[in-house]
Amino acid sequence: MTPIPSHEAAPARRGPVRAYLAAGVLFSLVTAWLLLLTTPQARDDERAFTTATACTAPGGGDPACLRTVTAVIDRAEKETMRKTPSYWLHLTEADGTSTRTRIESDLERLPAARPGATIEVTYWQDQIRYVAFGPDRRYTNADPREAFRMPLAIGLLLGILGAMFLTAAAATAWSGRRSPRAFPWQVGLTVTGGTFLSLFGALAAWSSDNIGDALQLTALAGAVVLAACALAALFLHRRHRGDDTIALRSSVLTEETCFPGLIMGEVPYAGNAGYLVAGPGVLATTPDPTGAFHRRTAPRALAPLRVRPPYLTDPPGRPDYDGRAVVVECEDNGVPVLVVTRKRDAPAVLGALGPRTTPE
Fold first, then answer.
1. Could you read off the pLDDT of 16-34 as tens digits, one per residue?
2. pTM, 2 dp
3. What is the number of other CB atoms lying within 10 angstroms of the CB of residue 251?
């Protein structure tokens, strides 16, 4: 069996390339909305709130000032679905208005937070921003301070992921002209670097006091990740040059063992059985995870040729085993046969098919 020419893999990569492009464009659009609109607006609201002064006009007609009114606690309902203490305060204000607000704080430790107690609530932009229980102040879930951190963190996270997907699309298209691998190392390296950088970007947003600092920290981390990926690319390029045969030594089998696997090809013992049974001189497929029933045994004529990574040009239905699959290319009297299993189980397949080993 001759290896599949790399140029045949190019059409098979169109699906992954389109998926990466779609995800990259979508994440980029959401990022633009979060970083160019939502985050600056939240930052402006924070500045306006922290610099707002108490209302001087009767009734506080200007919503941009801080309007404080007295209210009586009707009841406090604890949110049971949240890990952090959170309460809904149901209030009746001095003019008879009934309202409620949510506070993420343990009100059971505040004696002044009991039903019937008189408190002060402060409005800004027609929302209750904080509540004063005597000398104790608790901010509500409408507190605009540091509210920019959430859209900034999500924006940086999605922005980096969007760039990662766009780079993965380019890497997939580029590698498709050179290798038929289903999981090219270029895409794996891109995803690894992008994942680390996206997590750092989200962390930078939470630890920075302003948008500029978060972007500078993310850019600095991006330079470090880019340098690390460049060094890794040199190493991986040298490692994967030439033949992509995986060097594995066959196991010496003294008893039968059963593990996930599949035989693919135009032979009677192929099919979607799901498990392989390997023993001394025996390789069989079975749907039974114990390997005891409904076996279809491969003939002794089945000979292994090499072990390789999965290809995009493999027949449909090839399992991936969470990225741990390898393919044992075989031949049965001139008929190509593929044995797909996990890399750790491939030596047992080689041992069942004969004493031959793959080249090292």
1. 788 889 999 999 999 999 9
2. 0.70
3. 16
